[in-house]
Amino acid sequence: MKRARLTLGPLLFHWSAAKRRDFYLRIADEAPVDTVYVGEVVCAKREPMVASVQQEIIARLRAADKEVVLSTLALVTTLREVERIRELVNGDLLLEANDVACIQLLEGKAHVVGPYINAFNEGARDVLVRKGAIRIVLPIEMNKTGLQVVAGTAGDTELEYQVFGRQALSVAMRCYHARAHRLTKDHCQIICGIDPDGLAADTIDGIALFTINGTQTLTHGNAVLLSELAMLREFGVTHFRLSPQDLDMVAVATHYRAVLDGEQAADEVTAALRTLTGTTPWINGFLHGQPGRQWV
Amino acid sequence: MSIRYLELVCPAGTPSALRTAVEAGADTVYCGFRDCTNARNYPGLNFDFDELCAGVTYAHARDCKVLVAINTFPRAGDESPWHRAVDHAAAAGVDAVILADLGVLDYATRCHPNLRRHLSVQASAANAPSIQFYRDHFDVRRVVLPRVLSVEAVAELIAETGIETEVFAFGSVGPMSEGRCYLSSYLTGLSPTSEGACAPASHVAYEEIDGRVLSRLGGVTLNCFARGEPAAYPTPCKGRYVTHGQASYLFEEPVGLNAIEILPQLKGAGVTALKIEGRQRSRAYVAEVVTTFRRALDALERCDEGTPTGQLHGNTEGGKETCGAYQKGWR
């Protein structure tokens, strides 16, 4: 069996340029991850605000021998957004396509298909591979039965699945962060930037349920698929994604790396991981075919 | 681009609703098979093969077209129900199939090249390159546009791609990008994308506590109402949630979409067809909504002043209506 690759997914939250720079430079120096996805997935309005540090981040990650993949928007609707993807397609970085528009613009050039493009079955996977996908990040809603089939018959295509971090439940045209502050998307003041781990949205009877991140809705719970890593490897998953949260991601990566390499058992790192994730509950329901918010 | 006539595409949740829609003036009806292959997989709805054949015969005899929605995403390892649905739609002589999944599109293109293919809203194609992708690779002839676009954006897309479009004219307002929303499965474990049921009734409960009615989905409270107040159905994107200590309809209010006032603008944008939602609704709903839109479209064709817009408020979700994303400022 090939060595399991550990990846750091794109930062979904809107952190300041300085906070991003500090985060990624430490990842470059210290995190035992093979691949780092950078780039804006949620909202095109954020991108110019952090552009000043992007080249340095990419250069430092590459110098540290990380594979760098540039993630693209999950919902593309304006001409300006299409043009931006066209620019990225003509660049020299491997892209993660998160909207079918990106696949069309890539014209067969090798790329990663991100988790926002529906690849729920063998038929869809095979179409994507024919169009140039070398790696497919499977949707978070995929359960283990589906993963086993799609990963088990994928041949040379690499398969990635998120194993840590809040899971993205939806993308929208509307900005809920703006709505929560009685603003509209067009005049949002980039208000999402004040919540580096997203904004809690609870039920009216006080249960923490969702995390709002601009136009994106995430789970409240933190997905932790640690005991399941061995099973996922058996299925044929090759890449294991950690989605950045505002906590010590270097430590998270170190624990996952140790379990993936068989140096530690999952239950040996559980307590340490609990300390890192604080009071946020752990969830793993989607993989087990249960309501996504559950811990099985 | 100018088109002659806006096609009225109407819901047929059951064989009797199909006849009702045809009689009320539908140009086209759309329906689905009684299984997980369509996005309205609710008990008591939909068609088996024989019912579809009879429906096609009935509709075609009255110059009405029939579309079949096969618009969920197959479960891995078991794509056969979706392939069979495409085979059966072709055998029944339908006018087009409405598809979303890349694998199902590929199957239909290879096995039934002459069966007309429309792209479902579940594929969430909201920009020109996406539409071109589905057209170039699967010869998709019509795209059902996501309801997240303004009229101006719809016009731009049509001008850029030249493709036939179908837009939602009446039904619900979906704030999330469709076909990739996991809110309902997060609460229930059942997937709208592969099982075809968002907020399935089997997981809905109402409970009265201290004079208030709580509505729940999968055991999670999504809203509460005073006794006697109409309780909206607990769809996760229409629930009330608390941010900063304040409860609000964070995603969308429980309002319905009604674009009847902006039919001239939609026609001016170059739209080909208008979709009425509601395969899960009653025959009375189908009759009233289809009749009202038929009158409005006929008046539009005659260039009558003041398109009759009727009184559809009783049929919209929550009894309130909006033009949704078609208006700028919604987002």
Overview of the structural elements:
Chain A has helices at residues 17-30, 47-63, 79-89, 100-106, 122-130, 144-152, 176-180, 229-235, 249-260, 266-277; strands at 5-8, 35-38, 67-71, 94-97, 111-113, 133-137, 158-165, 168-171, 199-203, 208-213, 216-219, 222-224, 239-242, 282-283. In chain A, the strands form 2 sheets. Chain A has an 8-stranded parallel beta barrel, surrounded by 4 helices. In chain A, strands 8-11-10-9 form a 4-stranded antiparallel sheet, with no helix packed on it. By secondary structure, chain A is an alpha/beta fold. Chain A is globular and about 50 Å long. The two termini of chain A are 28 Å apart. Chain A has a single domain, classed as Alpha-Beta Barrel (TIM Barrel), CATH 3.20.20.70. Chain B has an 8-stranded parallel barrel, surrounded by 6 helices. Chain B has 331 residues and is an alpha/beta fold. In chain B, helix 1 runs parallel beside helix 2 (49-61), helix 1 (15-24) runs parallel beside helix 10 and helix 3 packs across helix 4 (102-111). The chains are: A alpha/beta (296), B alpha/beta (331). At the A-B interface, helix 3, helix 4, helix 5, helix 6 and strand 8 of A face helix 4, helix 5, helix 7, strand 10 and strand 11 of B.
Give a short overview.
The complex is a heterodimer of chains A (296) and B (331). With 296 residues, chain A is an alpha/beta fold.
CATH superfamily of chain A: Aldolase class I
In the CATH classification, which architecture of chain A applies?
A: Alpha-Beta Barrel
How many individual β-strands of chain A?
14
- What's the overall geometry of chain B? globular
Alpha-beta classification of chain B: alpha/beta
Largest sheet of chain B: 8 strands, parallel, barrel
Q: Give the neighbour order of strands across the main sheet of chain B.
A: 1-2-3-4-5-6-7-14
Query: What oligomeric state best describes the polypeptide chains here?
Result: heterodimer
Mean pLDDT metric of chain B: 91
Number of helix segments of chain B? 10
β-strand percent of chain B reads 15-25%
CATH class of the largest domain in chain B: Alpha Beta
Helix percentage range of chain B? 25-40%
